[in-house]
Fold:
Amino acid sequence: MKRKSTKTDYSTKLITLNDIAAKLGVSTITVSKALRGHPDISKTTAELIKKTADELGYSPNFMARSLAARKSNTIGVVLPQIDHHFFSSVIDHIYNFALDHQYHAFLTVSHENAELQKKQIQSLLSMRVDGIIISVSQDTKDFEIFETAKKRRVPLVFMDRIPDLADCNTVAVDDKGASYKAIEHAINLGYRRIAHFAGHTNISIGRERMLGFHKAMKDNGLNVNPDWVIEGDFDEKSGYDSFMKLYREKNLPDFILAVTYPTAIGIYTAAQEVGLTIPDDIDLICFGNSEVQNFLSPPLSCVNQPTDQLASKSMNLLIDNINNIDNFKCKKIVIDTELILRGTCIKYNRS
Amino acid sequence: MKRKSTKTDYSTKLITLNDIAAKLGVSTITVSKALRGHPDISKTTAELIKKTADELGYSPNFMARSLAARKSNTIGVVLPQIDHHFFSSVIDHIYNFALDHQYHAFLTVSHENAELQKKQIQSLLSMRVDGIIISVSQDTKDFEIFETAKKRRVPLVFMDRIPDLADCNTVAVDDKGASYKAIEHAINLGYRRIAHFAGHTNISIGRERMLGFHKAMKDNGLNVNPDWVIEGDFDEKSGYDSFMKLYREKNLPDFILAVTYPTAIGIYTAAQEVGLTIPDDIDLICFGNSEVQNFLSPPLSCVNQPTDQLASKSMNLLIDNINNIDNFKCKKIVIDTELILRGTCIKYNRS
DNA sequence: TTGAAAGCGCTAACAG
DNA sequence: CTGTTAGCGCTTTCAA
Structure:
């Protein structure tokens, strides 16, 4: 009586559990359990049911399943950009990880816009994602939405770009240490006149990289020339402009630590334009690894940020938190980096 | 009697339409309608309901909504890669478009693996996406899953990489014409010894680009040297290897049409390695535009593939099909391309 | 081992 | 303008 019993048209109709159940003369629940491999059901029945489901072209309704189970097995990912090697590589690894762990991942791109980011998080909450991995947009100032998620018992993991927020899960590269390592390496090669083309220091990575730079200089008894520390965006133009500024002022350093790979590209271009050779006239290293660096001339050395680890550790942490939602203690995971040396930052250019 | 009437705990509980309705002493439907801006509801009631919903921190349950409405307002996107400028740029535009049109977009990356691609499409069907945009993986041979989607009344749009399938929606760049245009330009500059470092011709873009190359040569009375037409992957290594092969054979052409931007990068690297100068010793142009090309030396000219148009036209077509599911006539949309000339392919290198 | 009852949160269709 | 009825397709108790 309750079940709709119009005649069944298998041609275009979507097959449901009921259809299978009806055809086999068993109950919906039996089918549901069989298809999910629930131990309740006998081998033979289960086999039969699976076979029939296949034949009928059954495809479980994710919406209905999530609604009933009160779990979507979906995580949300919020990134500031996607058309950028670092982030596209991270999301790639997240997808892979999710696939291996029967999760879906729903990606959202905030375009460095906190307003949009907020809407997207709301959207993800509406979709009842089980948790969220987020790399915050540059201009994030209001943390309320993060609190909201927490209140709704949707765990968050902040990845790479971390807001100043107590009591949250974070996974990030040891940016400060990496900066330190790179500068120390340069100093060991013999460089003294060292610059840092930095990013904005109001976001964690910019700040940390800056701190590591200063510490390495200080620890090695070198003074920082303030003209040589230039804050900018994280892009090509910024690297180009900073270089040109110093060139015009006839105040070029011997070595530059570039805050990102695009910044370094900008430096390459500028150097080429004014007829200076890398690494002989001016040497550099940057943050962030990408295939293309091998094909620059000379191949660009860098501080590797292992995107695979960022992805997998974030996912593990998040899933861990999802599965222990009640008394979970936040974790801060720091990932070690290493230098990848290619054609720059391998010898002293004044020897 | 039907409604659960345990006492309400607003602290962590997720607010539902019922909670709002109960609090206000109206029915669930009234709230539902009010929140969706349905014209049925009076201004005053609607205002009150919206206000209350806000106060309670109501967030609509997307799953329940989709289930009941039998429409998810979500489209699926299947791409072969994401860590690649072309695709990340396309998806970026798709996200933007979706946002502007109250759609969600669910991205899936097949990693050029047809098996995985099939699973992902099944997954998307399970999620009851309203339609799918797909750029097929290189090794796609079995089209059955596409038929399945169609049978389930989930419209498909094939973008950029098109399978040999009758009666389907497609959106693609005019690859053949673009090839033709590029070669013709080179010929007009004065080049005669022209090579094509091609991709696999079993996928549409590889094939079309190859066809355009041959046609342009023929139309201009030039013979194609078979040694100079090399099929390979679409990546750096392929460009590098092809170049080196010809170099070793002392059989280098004057001009190369590279099937992708990474292929061109491989050529740059190889040329540099053997001490040949671009564009003076050997000149080239490639398919695909990317910011980085401005920063190569010399800046690399290309055939632009407008990712924004690919995205928006695909979305428009798909949404159009979704809204007219019953008697929709498939469309084939071709997007015109133009050359972006920078530091290569702008003068004859033997003059 | 199987199934009946109940409901996840929401909406379409109709009635008042 | 508002509400009633009836589900969307599935799963979790709990009873048989």
Remarks:
- The first helix of chain A runs from residue 17 to 24.
